[in-house]
Description:
This protein is an alpha/beta fold. The chain is built from eight helices and seven strands; from the N terminus they run H-E-E-E-H-E-H-E-E-H-H-H-E-H-H.
Amino acid sequence: MLAILHDGYQFCLKFFDHLRLDHFRGFVDYWEVPLGEKTAVNGNWVKGPGNDFFDRLLGRFQSLPLIAEDLGIITDQVRNTIVHYGFPGMKVLLFAFTEDIAANPYAPHNHIPNCILYTGTHDNNTTRGWFESEAGEAEKERFFKCLGRRVSGEEVSWEMSRMALSSVANVAMIPLQDALGLGQSARMNIPSIADGNWEWRVLPEQLKPELADQLQGLAKKYLR
């Protein structure tokens, strides 16, 4: 198995600088569901391969350019594993503006350098879609206070992108839908829904020189 992983790992690194390990918690402990269950409700937490797995990788590779997808309910043991190997975790700005924003790890004032920051991921609404269809008034108010001013639906994607790029996070990711200021119709994926996902495509005429200039301006301003 390790030999297969070795070959696959080397192949992927020919195309990508870093590889993201989705559902990172499963490497520490995972939810095991008995055969025959129709849902995942009934199951048990089982100890995963943990440090032994990553130590074996380090025995074959000089470094592990991996990103830990650590969203959701994460235990101290998972956090300790991430810190031990120095893996960057993930932050998502769309999760930041909750009632407990002061302690919310996704809020800008709680970001750390060693993370990958996203305005949103493929499993979330677009920023404009979130603002217009999902965010409640209290959540919007917390966003406005964090931003320092009120904005409209037409402005929100750009301002959220600016917030991401100005973060201390070493890497900031802006989905193209947010760069274009698109709404809910451009959402990529809705988890647990089988149909209608991954259908959005950018059109050539949407990629205008003015957009490139704006993005370049922000990248220069925030040393990205």
